[in-house]
Design brief:
6 helices, two-stranded antiparallel sheet, globular, mainly alpha
Length: about 140
Amino acid sequence: MNVKVDPRGPRFGAAITSTVLAVILLTSPSTLATSLLVIQTIVFGLGAFAGLQFHPYGWIYRKFVRPRLSAPLELEDSAPLRFAQLVGFLFAAVGLVATIANSTGLALIAIGFALGAAFLNAAFAICLGCEMYLLGKRIISR
C-alpha cells in the first residue's frame, strides 16, 4: 500500500539532510562527523525500510511545519520517495563503512553524492532517487 504524502515534507527533510551531510563533510574525519553519519544512516534506513511515516524529519515536518501551511495542491506517491531514501541509505552506509575502515577519500565521495542529491531535492525539487525509481519502472514494464 502506497501512502500519498505532501511533497513539501520530503523537501523539508532534504534540507535537514543537506545540512547534516554538509556538517559531516566539513568536520570529517572526526567523532562528530562519524556520529552524525551514523544518525543520518539510521534516518535514511527508517525512511526506506520502515516507511516515511517513521522518518524523523517527516515527523518534525508533520508536527511543527505542516500545521502552519495551507493544504498541499497535490499529494505525491510515497514509493519513489522510499526508493530515494534507500539510495541515500546506501550512499550513507558506504560512507560509514569507509569511515570506519579509515578510507576517508571514499567516505567523502559517498557522502558528497548523498549531499548532492539531497541538495537538488531541497533547493530545486529534483529528486534523483525518485527519477531513478520511475525510470526503473518504465524499463521493467516494457
